Amino acid sequence: MLSRAVSSSLASLLGSRFASFSPVGEKLYAVAKGRDPNQPEFLQAVEEVIKSLEPVFKRDARYATIFERLLEPERVIQFRVPWVDDKGVERVNRGFRVQYNSAIGPYKGGLRLASHVNLSVIKFLGFEQIFKNSLTTLPMGGGKGGSDFDPHGKSDVEVMRFCQSFMTELYRHIGPNTDVPAGDIGVGKREVGYLFGQYKRIVNAFEGVLTGKALEFGGSLIRPEATGYGAVYFASEMMKSVGKGLKGMKVAVSGAGNVAQYAVEKLLDENAIPVTMGDTSGHIYEPEGITREQLAEVMHLVNVERKKLDSFKGLSKKGVYTPGLKTRVWVHKCDIAMPCATQNEIEKEHAIMLRDNGCFAVVEGANMPSTNEAVDVYQEAGMMYGLGKAANAGGVAVSGLEMSQNSMRYSWTRDEVDQKLRSIMHTIHKNAYDTASEWGFPGNLQIGANIAGFLKVAHAMEVQGTV
Ligand SMILES: NC(=O)C1=CN([C@@H]2O[C@H](COP(=O)(O)OP(=O)(O)OC[C@H]3O[C@@H](n4cnc5c(N)ncnc54)[C@H](O)[C@@H]3O)[C@@H](O)[C@H]2O)C=CC1
Ligand SMILES: O=C(O)CCC(=O)C(=O)O
Predict the structure, then answer these.
(1) CA 94 – ligand 2 centroid, Å
(2) N or C end: fewer C-beta atoms under 10 angstroms in the chain?
(3) Which letter does DSSP use for residue 220 in this model?
(4) Do 309 and 190 belong to one domain?
(5) Which residues of the sequence carry a binding annotation for NAD(+) (predicted)?
(6) Are the beta carbons of 431 and 135 closer than 8 angstroms?
(7) pLDDT by residue (tens digit) across 370-412?
(8) Residue 18 is part of which domain span?
(9) Of all protein residues, whose CA lies closest to atom 43 belonging to ligand 1?
(10) In this structure, are residues 141 and 133 in contact, taking their beta carbons and an 8 Å threshold?
(11) Interface predicted TM-score (ipTM) over 0.90
């Protein structure tokens, strides 16, 4: 245990929020911060998990030791990605794959292509993925990768050249029983296709090394829809737990990409009223609800024309488009907020706006979309909080089902996969809910999900020895 003097000097070194850790939590956070002081997103994710795991560390100090081991990724791969643009100019990007934890299965997690990608971002995502994958009930470890290459504004051929170069290094580190990447921001069917083609060409084997593949070469039905649908199934479980339903609920959704599109589609199926969608160009607000026709236009614009919402033509008379990111979707009155765009898109001021406007639940389709200060606002206000690790686990869960289908050389029907997804989201919610109650925090899905996700991995790590 740290002395009071050491602990207070560490507190001033690490910032005021640090003061609320127990001495064990302080020590673990200090280990992470001491090793990687310049990785803010990673440290934010670590802080959030440590706070939830305090009761576990208190009950049995063994778990703190295991957690300290888990904090360090098993392997971090960083590499050069050279490619040639359409003008014949040589370009270089930086590629990453963080193979974070393989205690319960092969590393599994997406690849992100976006200019903001750096090691801190990939490490936070890989760290989160460990707990999320554990919650899915499927045997998948945690990993994440990507590059600071931004596919927006690049031609298809430029994206292909980049993906081929990226895979020319990555292929030696992955495999269907080792590490199975998939999509994330900036990586959809097109990019997964180019990556798969290059892998197959190099290793001369047709194997399930990526998920999110097109149906023609081993993809699973419902994988494109899975994260958005899964988040809405999770929201529905949250509502049921307090005797409510989604019908008639006004939902503010951020994002206009994969997760947001299918969240809006499923909200419409459930007779909820999605009132917003947003991207880096701005956002649309439809006070009476986004219609299926408007959603179809967004899908065409984003997925086919590769444009942003500033090109959206279908606003209703009451609809409003607000350009830029200064004003976010969270200014609009809603019952439920579903952030489905990116990390830290809800800061404390936005959480306060949501709370003051009567929003009573936040369900995260994105990874770590709320800052820790925003989460404090939700918890202090008694708002329901479905954290990303639980609420957006449907995507990776169906990726796990894609791996199973590839292994069996078989394909389940759309209904079969959708039923399995629903059942997995039900189980994740129940596990988080029950675990929260068992540990003395009834209704706190954040604590419940983090503890349940951690304990499974911790037990596997313990019996596998110090590896
Ligand atoms: N695709 C998947 O299966 C899964 C995705 N996620 C998470 O969901 C989130 C969205 O991912 P996808 O929809 O797959 O990506 P995407 O690339 O299809 O869409 C991302 C959307 O967010 C918007 N966006 C990005 N940065 C923004 C910013 N700073 N402010 C406002 N809008 C911004 C983009 O313009 C785009 O509309 C990410 O946090 C991702 O990690 C989580 C689980 C699985
Ligand atoms: O489907 C996958 O393997 C990855 C999904 C993902 O990146 C995520 O859950 O954040």
Answers:
(1) 20
(2) C
(3) P
(4) no
(5) 227, 258
(6) yes
(7) 999 999 999 999 999 999 999 999 999 999 999 999 999 999 9
(8) 4-71
(9) 392
(10) yes
(11) yes
